[in-house]
Automatic annotation (TrEMBL):
Protein's UniProt name: Glycosyltransferase
Top-rank taxon, per record: Bacteria
InterPro entries given in the database record: Glyco_trans_1, Glyco_trans_2-like, Glycosyltransf_2, Nucleotide-diphossugar_trans
The organism of origin for this protein: Lentzea rhizosphaerae
UniProt cross-references to Pfam families, sorted A to Z: Glycos_transf_1, Glycos_transf_2
Length: 836
């Protein structure tokens, strides 16, 4: 198993920094990483623990406390050296640390080699407590990453940079003695909040790969111990204000005493080391006696994550009515107690410290404005009393904060999961990307069809399921399925709604993971599937065989409907089959264009054109994703000189609900929007599917819209993008020599005459394709009849606006019609996104 190496510059056995590390490391432990944590005793001088062995530090049993081998043998590197170096930093001197940094780097690399490290998490490494160690880390990261051909294998997170926590301690901006953050190909940086990110870029304006990774809130893994109150002498029914911070003047615990004095029947529980600042503890005890406040100094509690025998913060939270964080204004950059309260479902109260509104925007709590009032005001006391005694108010606040906290946790987990995805097996050659939204009714059948592929090694492909904000049991079903599947199933999330966004997220996830493999070997393919369409048992086998044979950039599948779903509806079935027969002919000639229901793209070509691009349109005053990301992507690939091939034996069964539950829109060609707006309509079977057949008039209307949408995109667009196709024998045979020559001439003329170019692929192809269709429609339909069958018939009637257009000016007015972007008439006439 690979190892994760964590290093904290905090030098504390269990601090807020370490707690956040554990939350991040847990997800990697679940992926199979062995987690090693260096607490930083050999880094930070002022904690007085240099080279001390670990003794009673409690961490979860899946974490191994570790440190760099041989570090104590580096000549000149000790607590006194680090303290003297930090003093030089305060004077903005640049100390001489290169020799020690080099030796430290060598020791770090040797340790990582010995442990089999594949991932590194650095916590607060930019804090200039030990500039020699920071320099050494940068050196070690570069050397180890290059030696093992690793990508961005380092998560470097700064919780509180020097200007946020104790600005007087580390010198003045721009901190010339502090090691500069580097644009390393191996490091992804994270700031805790937007203010930290902004200030980081003020200091390092050229820094790249800097994202936000906010506090996360993990719900309790076990209930609180019932004997907690009795052990501490607290009577049942007593209201409890919980305070768990260091007991030092900067934390302003005195404010809690003044608050509790105004809340009869309330006990203040103070968890912390009373020996850290004995004078402050004596002062607080005296104030409690003066104010006659029941107070318990509970000592240092074990961290929430602890499973040890002692009492933990979780036990206190289980019995607390509120958690307090009435700290000083400029001391804290963020408050771990608030995060623990949110996670445990306990209301919190706080002072408005300098970054509170940045870190906890959107959360709900009584907030004391300490710039105006040093001690709790009557109104603040009233709000706290209501929160402690009004059950309905308390429940509302807890529910609100939990919703916001859950979103924050999921967003952070998604970000880490995408940037540091699980390793990909050396034998995997295909990643099947499956965007899903509320597909609990279909997802297991779809996953089974993807899993049970014939004549292909289950270890040669994987499934990447991208949840797009499902509200049903889709994700739970997928996770259960993954537990027993011989084909690896990865479940990730995409928060921006839209199938295009989800498809892109899944493909980017697969690309990054495939790139992280050393010597990934043969061509690697990204495969798109649809969450409501089952695939045939040889879908991947046939698709891979054709892609390998033709060495094409994109492989396009065949699609079909199951005839059993259309029994008793011969007119509808006939309209569908005519469209699919036309498709089979043109795709065999031109390769076709990818449809999200099933296509593959070779990774190099995917990256060459920039991957899936998301376009946006305004719909009812809101920006929405454009539906045609798959077509746009295919157009970019084809126009970049890459080949597209058709795999007719690689087949996908289309879910009939697309027709059954939107039959009126299907008939009229509006199933995916109108007036140029093409968006996915979420079609769910809210009622029994329609089973009656179309009337003759409806069947004709459906066919006409279908063929109008099909013809410009599938018979004209390929040669518009690649005119050289018109020189190929098979294409000339299909069109006939005269039509091929006419198309070649008009394509050159139209390209030359266009003065205003819309560079978005979804639009750029429409105007010339529509123009060519209208000019050559009779000839094209003649060739379709000759090739596909007489039942293809003749072109649908022209729009009435052409009735008054003179024949010799027809092509001129076709141009105006097709370029009329404001009315969208041409978009509507051509069916706007297809029917079948």
């Amino acid at each position: 198993m690979p190892a994760l190496w964590g290093v904290s510059f905090d030098a504390a056995a269990m601090s807020g920094v370490v707690v956040e590390f554990l939350k991040t490391a847990r997800s990697f432990a679940d992926q199979g990483y062995r987690v090693h944590l260096d607490l930083g005793y050999d880094i930070k001088a002022d904690k007085g623990r240099f080279f001390e062995p670990y003794r009673n530090e409690r961490v979860p049993d899946w974490v191994t406390l570790d440190r760099v081998d041989g570090i104590a043998r580096i000549a000149g590197y000790d607590q006194e050296f680090v303290a003297a170096t930090l003093e030089a930093v305060r004077r903005d001197d640049v100390p001489e640390t290169d020799r020690i940094a080099e030796e430290l780097a060598d020791a770090i690399v040797r340790t990582w080699e010995d442990r089999g490290v594949a991932l590194v998490v650095v916590e607060n490494g930019t804090l200039p407590e030990n500039v020699a160690y920071t320099k050494a880390l940068y050196l070690a990261i570069a050397r180890y990453g290059a030696a093992h051909d690793l990508g961005r294998y380092v998560l470097w997170r700064d919780h509180d940079l020097m200007w946020q926590s104790e600005p007087a301690k580390y010198g003045s901006f721009p901190y010339p003695a502090t090691p500069a953050m580097v644009n390393s190909p191996h490091i992804h940086y994270f700031a805790l909040h937007e203010d930290a990110r902004r200030r980081t870029l003020e200091w390092m304006p050229h820094l790249r790969n800097l994202d936000l990774l906010p506090n996360t809130f993990t719900e309790p893994s076990r209930p609180g111990r019932p004997d907690f109150l009795a052990h501490h002498g607290i009577a049942p029914g007593t209201k409890i204000i919980a305070r768990f911070t260091r007991i030092i003047p900067q934390k302003r615990v005195d404010r809690d005493l003044h608050l509790a004095a105004q809340l009869p029947g309330t006990c203040l529980f103070i968890a912390g080391d009373t020996d850290e600042d004995p004078a402050e503890t004596r002062k607080l005890r005296a104030l409690a006696e003066e104010l006659r406040v029941p107070v318990v100094f509970g000592g240092v509690l074990e961290p929430c994550e602890s499973a040890g025998p002692g009492f933990s913060v979780r036990d206190l939270l289980a019995h607390a009515d509120v958690v307090s964080f009435l700290t000083s204004y400029d001391y804290e950059s963020f408050g771990n107690p608030i995060g623990e309260a949110i996670a445990a479902g306990v209301p919190y109260i706080t002072s408005r410290y300098s970054l509170y509104d940045t870190v906890y925007a959107g959360y709900e709590a009584p907030v004391l404005d300490i710039l105006s009032h040093d001690l709790p005001t009557p109104e603040f006391v009233r709000q706290v009393h209501e929160l402690m005694t009004n059950a309905e108010r308390r429940a509302d606040v807890v529910a609100h904060n939990r919703r916001v906290g859950t979103h924050s946790r999921e967003a952070a987990n998604d970000l880490v999961g995408r940037l540091f995805p699980p390793a990909m097996g050396a034998g995997v050659r295909l990643s099947v990307v499956l965007p899903v939204f509320d597909e609990a009714a279909n997802i297991e059948d779809v996953l089974l069809s993807l899993r049970d592929q014939q004549d292909i090694d289950p270890g040669s492909y994987e499934i990447v399921l991208v949840d797009n904000n499902s509200t049903d049991g889709t994700v739970e079903i997928a996770r259960r399925f993954a537990e027993s599947s011989p084909v690896a199933v990865h479940v990730i999330s995409e928060r921006e709604q839209g199938v295009a966004c989800a498809r892109r997220a899944g493909m980017e996830f697969a690309v990054r993971r495939s790139r992280n493999r050393k010597d990934p070997g043969e061509r690697f393919y990204l495969v798109s599937a649809d969450a409501d369409c089952r695939v045939d048992s040889r879908w991947l086998t046939e698709l891979l065989a054709v892609m390998e044979r033709d060495k094409a950039a994109i492989g396009v599948c065949d699609y079909y409907y199951n005839a059993e779903h259309f029994v008793g509806r011969p007119r509808l079935w006939d309209a569908i089959q005519r469209t699919l027969r036309c498709r089979a002919v043109t795709f065999s000639l031109f390769g076709g264009f990818p449809d999200g229901k099933g296509f593959a793209v070779e990774r190099e070509a995917y990256e060459d054109v920039g991957g899936i691009e998301i376009f946006y349109q305004l719909r009812n005053g809101r920006f929405v994703n454009h539906l045609s990301d798959d077509w746009d992507f295919g157009i970019r690939v084809a126009s970049s000189g890459h080949d597209i091939t058709y795999a007719p034996q690689s087949r996908v069964e289309i879910n009939p609900r697309r027709v059954n539950h939107a039959i009126d829109e299907v008939i009229s060609g509006r199933a995916y929007g109108n007036d140029g707006i093409i968006v996915m309509r979420d079609i769910r079977p809210e009622a029994p599917p329609t089973t009656v057949d179309l009337t003759e008039a409806e069947a004709l209307q459906a066919w006409e819209f279908s063929i109008k949408d099909f013809t410009p995109k599938n018979t004209i667009l390929p040669v518009l993008l690649t005119p050289s196709l018109l020189d190929e024998d098979a294409v000339v045979a299909f069109f006939g020599a005269d039509l091929a020559a006419g198309l070649r001439t008009r394509i050159a003329e139209i390209k030359a005459e266009m003065r205003v170019v819309d560079f978005l692929p979804i639009h750029s192809y429409k105007t010339p394709s529509y123009r060519l269709y209208l000019e050559f429609r009779d000839e094209i339909f003649a060739r379709l009849r000759a090739t596909v069958g007489d039942d293809i018939g003749y072109p649908p009637p022209l729009p009435e606006c052409f009735d008054a257009v003179p024949e010799d000016r027809f092509a001129e007015f076709v141009k105006y019609y097709c370029e009329d972007r404001e009315s969208g008439e041409a978009h509507n006439y051509f069916g706007n996104g297809g029917v079948f």
